[in-house]
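ARCHIVE CARD
Drawer: 12
Card no.: 0347
Subject: one protein chain, sequence and derived structure
Cross-reference: see card 0346
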Amino acid sequence: MTGSAERPRRIIDTNVLLIANGAHDDVGPDCVAACALTLQEILQSGRVVIDDGWAILEEYGHKLRPNRGKGPGDVFLKWLLRQAGNPARCEQVTITPDEARGWAEFPDDPALGNFDPPDRKFVAVASAHPAHPPILQAADSKWLDWAPDLAHHGVEVRFICKGEAQRFHQNKFGR
């Protein structure tokens, strides 16, 4: 058994759970399997970081069915809801709503001015946590452009399906 001090911390973008559930028609089976495996590894020995206002959990809850669904993302959300009060498996940090940036902890950087407002909470949580845990991203190609700018602020983005993200980026932006 891994102690909580050794459990790797992760912030998980919603698309990881959705892709694990097979809810993204354009990704390949390898990406679906990789997302499901990643969630399974976190279930077994990881630690999730969320906000204490439950903005992340509310977003998950709007897109998944933890009480009825059988997909890996649904199962993961059900587990996370049970672990929300267990700091060994789920840490919560405070993020502060901000009219201009969405969240006060989101970097005040013009290079990130077009960052998707709904995704800013993941960055805010990474910035607010003293360990700055990485954000797991599945295949949202826009994050490829933002990742270098986020890195300047100590926020790491780890792509589970980087090849898929690059393919989408090429198709969408031609680069």
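Annotation on reverse: The chain has a mean pLDDT of 93. The beta strands are 9-12, 47-51, 90-93, 97-98, 102-103, 135-137, 157-159.
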